Amino acid sequence: MLNKDYLIKAVDGDQQVRLILSHTTGAVQEAHQRHQTSATASAAMGRVLTAALMMGSDLKGDKDTLTVRIDGGGISGPIVATADAHG
Question: What is the pTM of this model?
Answer without folding.
Answer: 0.84
